[in-house]
Structures are given as structure tokens and as C-alpha cells.
């Protein structure tokens, strides 16, 4: 039995008087391409921000004398900021829409990320990155909510996963910049890298202002059917389609009141309603274990590689390239009828466990670069798939709050676990098997819990109330 109320799969070729039917009639065209480019540029900016610290960590250690445990202070305190920002932007997303909260979140990232490049000491750098992180969770919430709600059901899974491809390209570019800038400009190379990674966020702000179209699903959920109809007509016009639905048919679509939307944001516990409880608990364990493992690996792998290979920045850059084929493969299999979201998730988790176990057992000049590539190949696409599954499972009226809840939960545990990762890094020379073994156990737990998820979201319409 499924544990959530889901709509029936769309089988009729005739457009239904439902948002999924209307959007499927409009199809995937120029409007969705523009929405994807906006989301992709946001994902690019997000990828740069979450990657840059791991690449400048070694420079900060040498310049300001910061050890592995002290280095963990940054991801720890920024985890607190992520929680605050997640609650704030989750509330704004479901109460005031997907446009201006988007601008606010990205402006926050852009300005304070740029300012952090001029930090005179580690404390100042931590404080400024704390403020940057306030908008990071918000950007993820708004990115997936805004894009999910304009995609036809036939293309949704593939497009949402491909967002990670853009983020992966950004991460690879960051690795390449670090490989070029930091060794070349010893003292200020890390500052130039931080400046470069802050620039895409400014472009996102301009893009979102130039493309201020609200989500029709959000407008319907709010009860603003006239504005929703205008947006749907604009979508159809962009795609060269007629909209054979009068305003009266849009006005029959169910909506939630503004008050109920605010309530669902203020009380993130809405995701713990009985109908969602099993999935919410399972996803909580899965997402926390994955994000803690993934970001700890991303944060400390460059430092670990410094003990194993001569050119750690080049190895990191090559390892990042492994994300690209991983995301492409997932975007293909995630839409296969007999694979779908859940089996795709399990396949990549199994690969991550196997790779980390091999990394713990075999460490030489040949295996380390290969296994670094495989770690990125298997772990990076999982984030996009998990967020896509959440976006598809929860209804429009609580979609932003649900995404914020999971991001905040992982951020809460992220306050503490970087210290574990930092300690494991410091003792790596004595126990080289420890670091990868810890995260292999985390992914093994994730694999087991995925079997508690019973609802496959492949080809299932979104809930709009």
C-alpha cells in the first residue's frame, strides 16, 4: 500500500482540466528551457559555494595555522545559518511565492561571498561565510520548487536530475580554477578563487528579475486563479501552443487559503501528517546520512589526497569530472519504466558503498585518482535525485516547507559531524582506512532505509493542495 495520497498516472492523450494535464498540453518548450537555465545557473552558483571552502582549506591552514578540527568550525557554524535560512526562505517560498524570495536568497549569497574574499583572518572569513549560508538552503528550496512546478510529468525526473549536471560543471570549473590559481598565486590565490565563485550569483539575481514569472501551481494553491491563468497563457505562448482552457476551467482547480499556506510554513511538522509519516521519517534518515557523508567527503578529500598524491588539486579536479557521466547515467535510467527513482537511488548507493570500501583497502598512486572519480560518480547524482523525489512527493502547498525541513535537518546534523570528519582527517596518517570506512557505513544505512520507501513517483502527477 502506498503511504501517501497520489493522483492517478496520466494515460489519456486528451488534456485534462488539471494543472498536470494543462502543463503536459503546453509541453516542454522554450519556457521550460528558460526555467531550466535559471535553475541551472542557480545550481552552478550553489555548487561553487559549497565546493570553494574544501579547495581553499589547505591555503587557510597554511596562512592562518588552522588544524583539521578548527577547520570544521566553518561547516559547523554555517550549518546553523543553513537552518535559520531554511526556515526563513521555506516560509517565504510558500507564503510569498517563488520570485522575490529567490532574488533575496541569491543577492545574499552574491554580496557576502564576494566580501569573504577580502577577509583579514579566519574568524572574519567564518562570520562572512555564515551569512552566505543563510541564503544557500533558500536557493536549493526555491530552485527545485520553481522548476518542478512548470515541468510536464513526462520530462520532470530527467530535467530535475540534469540540474545536477550544471552544478557538476560548476564544481569541475571550481576545481580547475583552484588547480590554476592557488599554486600560481600562493598568498592570494584562494582569494581570487572566492571572488570568481561569487560572480554567478550576481547573474542569477539579474536573470530572476528579468524572468519574474510566478509558478502557476503556487498561484492556484493560493487561490489566485486569474494570475495563474495569465502565467499558463504566457507559457503556452512561449511554446507556440494554444491554451484550449477558459479561465472558468482554471477557477475550478482546488486551492488552499493563504492562511493555510502560512500555517504549513510556520509549522514544518506538516510533513509529519499521518499520510506522509513513513516517507518523511525514511527520507529524513536517508537525506541526513547522505548529505553529511557527501559534504564531509567534499570538504576533507582534498586534504586527504594531499597525503597520498603529489598534485592533490589536479587529482581533485579529475575526480570532479566523474560527476558528469554519473549525472548523465542517472538522468537516463531514472525515467526507465522498470527502474524509476527508487531503484536508481539504490544502484548509486551500492556503488558508493563499494567504492568507499575499496578506498579504505587500497591506496596507491593509481587507485586513488580512479576511486576519487568513482566517489564523485556515485555520490553527486544522489543529491539531485533525493531532492527531485521530495519535490514530486509532497503537495504544492507544502513543497517549499518540505524541502526546507529536509535541508534544515541535514544542516543540523552537519553542525556536529564535520568535527568527526576533521578528527578522522587528523588521524588519517595513522589509520588510513578510517576516513572512507566511516562514510561507507553511512551509505550502507542509507541503502537499507530506501526499502522503507514504497511510493514510486515515476509518471505520477503532482499533488496541488
UniProtKB/TrEMBL annotation:
The chain crosses the membrane at residues 33-57, 69-92, 99-117, 123-147, 159-180, 192-211, 275-300, 312-333, 345-362, 368-390, 402-421, 433-453. PROSITE patterns: MFS (PS50850). This is Transporter svop-1. InterPro entries: MFS, MFS_dom, MFS_trans_sf. It is found in: Membrane. Keywords: Membrane, Transmembrane, Transmembrane helix, Transport. One of its GO terms (cellular component) is membrane. SUPFAM superfamilies: MFS general substrate transporter. The keyword Membrane applies. It holds the Pfam family MFS_1. Gene3D superfamilies: MFS general substrate transporter like domains (1.20.1250.20). Residues 35-458 form the Major facilitator superfamily (MFS) profile domain. Its main location: membrane. One of its GO terms (molecular function) is transmembrane transporter activity. It is a multi-pass membrane protein. The keyword Ribosomal protein does not apply.
Amino acid at each position: 500500500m502506498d503511504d501517501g495520497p497520489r493522483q492517478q498516472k496520466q494515460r489519456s492523450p486528451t488534456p485534462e482540466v488539471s494543472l498536470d494535464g494543462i502543463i503536459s498540453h503546453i509541453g516542454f518548450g522554450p519556457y521550460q528551457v528558460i526555467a531550466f537555465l535559471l535553475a541551472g545557473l542557480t545550481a552552478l552558483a550553489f555548487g561553487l559555494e559549497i565546493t570553494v571552502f574544501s579547495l581553499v582549506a589547505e591555503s587557510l591552514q597554511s596562512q592562518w595555522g588552522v588544524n583539521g578540527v578548527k577547520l570544521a568550525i566553518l561547516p559547523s557554524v554555517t550549518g546553523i545559518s543553513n537552518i535559520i535560512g531554511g526556515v526563513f526562505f521555506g516560509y517565504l517560498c510558500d507564503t510569498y511565492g517563488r520570485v522575490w524570495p529567490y532574488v533575496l536568497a541569491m543577492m545574499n549569497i552574491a554580496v557576502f561571498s564576494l566580501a569573504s574574499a577580502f577577509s583579514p583572518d579566519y574568524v572574519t572569513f567564518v562570520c562572512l561565510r555564515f551569512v552566505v549560508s543563510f541564503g544557500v538552503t533558500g536557493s536549493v528550496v526555491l530552485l527545485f520548487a520553481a522548476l518542478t512546478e512548470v515541468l510536464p510529468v513526462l520530462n520532470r525526473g530527467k530535467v530535475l536530475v540534469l540540474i545536477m549536471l550544471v552544478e557538476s560543471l560548476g564544481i569541475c570549473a571550481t576545481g580547475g580554477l583552484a588547480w590554476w590559481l592557488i599554486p600560481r598565486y600562493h598568498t592570494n590565490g584562494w582569494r581570487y578563487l572566492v571572488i570568481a565563485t561569487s560572480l554567478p550569483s550576481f547573474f542569477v539575481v539579474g536573470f530572476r528579475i528579468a524572468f519574474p514569472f510566478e509558478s502557476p501551481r503556487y498561484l492556484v494553491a493560493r487561490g489566485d486563479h486569474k494570475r495563474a491563468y495569465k502565467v499558463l497563457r504566457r507559457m503556452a505562448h512561449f511554446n507556440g501552443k494554444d491554451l484550449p482552457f477558459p479561465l472558468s476551467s482554471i477557477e475550478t482547480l482546488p486551492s488552499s487559503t493563504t492562511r493555510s499556506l502560512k500555517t504549513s510554513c510556520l509549522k514544518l511538522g506538516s510533513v509529519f501528517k499521518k499520510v506522509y509519516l513513513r516517507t518523511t521519517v525514511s527520507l529524513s534518515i536517508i537525506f541526513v546520512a547522505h548529505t553529511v557523508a557527501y559534504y564531509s567527503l567534499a570538504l576533507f578529500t582534498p586534504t586527504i589526497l594531499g597525503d597520498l598524491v603529489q598534485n592533490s588539486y589536479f587529482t581533485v579536479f579529475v575526480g570532479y569530472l566523474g560527476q558528469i557521466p554519473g549525472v548523465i547515467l542517472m538522468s537516463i535510467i531514472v525515467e526507465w519504466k522498470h527502474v524509476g527513482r527508487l531503484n536508481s537511488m539504490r544502484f548509486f548507493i551500492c556503488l558508493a558503498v563499494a567504492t568507499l570500501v575499496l578506498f579504505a583497502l587500497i591506496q596507491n598512486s593509481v587507485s586513488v585518482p580512479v576511486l576519487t572519480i568513482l566517489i564523485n560518480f556515485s555520490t553527486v547524482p544522489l543529491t539531485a535525485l533525493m531532492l527531485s523525489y521530495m519535490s514530486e512527493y509532497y503537495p504544492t502547498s507544502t513543497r517549499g516547507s518540505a524541502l526546507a525541513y529536509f535541508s534544515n535537518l541535514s544542516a543540523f546534523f552537519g553542525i556536529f559531524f564535520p568535527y568527526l570528519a576533521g578528527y578522522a582527517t587528523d588521524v588519517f596518517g595513522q589509520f588510513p582506512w578510517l576516513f572512507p570506512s566511516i562514510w561507507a557505513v553511512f551509505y550502507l544505512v542509507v541503502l537499507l532505509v530506501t526499502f522503507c520507501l514504497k511510493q514510486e513517483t515515476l509518471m505520477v502527477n503532482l499533488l496541488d493542495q
